[in-house]
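For concreteness, we quote verbatim a single protein encoded this way:
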Amino acid sequence: MNATTPQAIPHDPVADLSDAVIVVDATGSIVEANQVAGRMLGYRREELIGRSIEDLVPVAQRAAHVVRREGLTGQHPRKMGQARPFRAVCRDGTELLVEVGLAPGTDADGHAVTTATVRDVTARERVITEICGSPDKLRALTGGAFDILWEATFVGDDGDGMLQLFRDPGPDLGYSLGEFPRTLAISRWLSQMPGEDAARFKQLCNRSRESGDRVMTEYRMRMKSGGFAWFEHHGLPTEFVDGQPVKFLGACRNITARKHAEEELRRANEQLHRLKNQLEDENVLLAEEIGRVQGFSEIVGTSASLRQVLRQIGQVAHSNSSVLITGETGTGKELVAHAIHRSSPRSRAPMVTLNCAALPPTLIESELFGHERGAFTGASARRVGRFELAHRGTILLDEIGDLPLDLQAKLLRVLESGECQRVGSSDTFKVDVRVIAATNRDLQQEIDKGTFRVDLFYRLSVFPIHLPPLRERREDIPLLVSYLVGKKAPKLGKSIDRIPRDVLDELAQYDWPGNVRELENVIERAVLLSPGPVLVLGDTVRAASDRRLAGDADGTQAGDRSSWTLEQAEREHILRVCTACGWKIKGTGGAAERLGLNASTLYFRMKKLGITRPGDASPRDEHKGSDALPFR
């Protein structure tokens, strides 16, 4: 089939369709049409074949129609298939409003053709016009409508025109009835929107004017009160001029309540997600705390030095001041920190612990302040730091002396400003945390060596608490032994109801370099070794003392004491010699002779270093009185 010699079709394949079908070749000639097309336009079907399609277009629009028809060649079929209103001229000169759908194809010879499906919509448009032109009918149809029906007429190429609203939008925008205009410029309607919403809406409208597509979007409108109402917008082109839509009909619906509900739901989900993550993090930390906290649940002892510590806990607990707890390993620094937290107004909030010596330097910052996803290799998800978890509570920084210098500066910033910054993030957030630090190091020496910041020391040691070693409060050992036996025996399936005096004496004579932690381990072993209801110590303490002395003799513990001060080394040496001499100070074979010192000088040094014979309160010179001599 071609434009010059139309071929007769034995059977009309579209004869039964209610729509007109016209096939046009690339030159604009009609090469095929069905009977419906002839009846619609007042022609016999045979009279249409061979005519130019432009003969069926109003004279004023023919030039534009030629350009548009020629531009259709090669376009995407889906875009060409969209139905658009056009004016068609009948044989008697009358015009019809028709809706035309276009589809490309080829004839039997492979030539390009375009098939147009034509539907007469004149009657439909007449009804719409009648309704829109009758206020009574329109009011009856739209007065109780939930949507605001509208009609937009565009004028010119600047995208502006007039907007006719068929229901008063005033109540939706906070105005009284009749206060907001129902006929207004499209630009006036756009001016009610925030800038970004108006720009997006204009872009969609321009795209619809080019393509004839439906417009569907959501936007905000400024209310009389200054707030915003949300609207859902639908629009469809209804009238075209030269193929360009100039009129749109549609509706917009107030969806403010729905948007508020969605926002509340989003916030609730975010809060639920945040609380869920926080609860999971706190549960992990709680499990870590339970596994890490070993020792007693109460501070046991009646010595003067321990009573002083308890007084200090009571003095500082109700403040927010930073506390620095110092003391040897095993003296109970973490126990004191928990006592401060439990006695403080922050006791309902969590207490979070971080051992600065238990983590590599590369991970301490992440543990303290948290990190964002992708901040470093292995950071597959965002992690909440210990400071953030301890918000409104307490954080214990154990072994603070092992904190690297670069992190000391960041910790100082948090203490001074109360602001944290996650690793991999540029944002900061406020934290309200009470800081307790603990260390078994001499921080003043670390400052002198340049390994600890003096400004951080001053910030942490607002209220220092020093815990005495167990050898300086030997009078507490019987109470501690009784407490530990009562704690360990039931767990080990034992029943211990008597502790011999010689056992207590032997325990009181030992120097306990591991302090209460070492005492607890010794008692646990003794409970295991005891066959009956009487505590049997065995050689536990003696073996520990022998190993210690042997280690000193062969130098195996030299590495452990490389950080001792001269005073510590002197004190330890005098203790070893006194123990080896059976605490005989004067005379042949006494400690003074072995040390090459005058006995009075040795007594003076022992008093200065706080060295006492086990079971005695303080050293005395033997020649200054014979009552209750502490040494033989």
User: Anything to note?
Assistant: DSSP finds 23 helices and 20 strands in the chain.
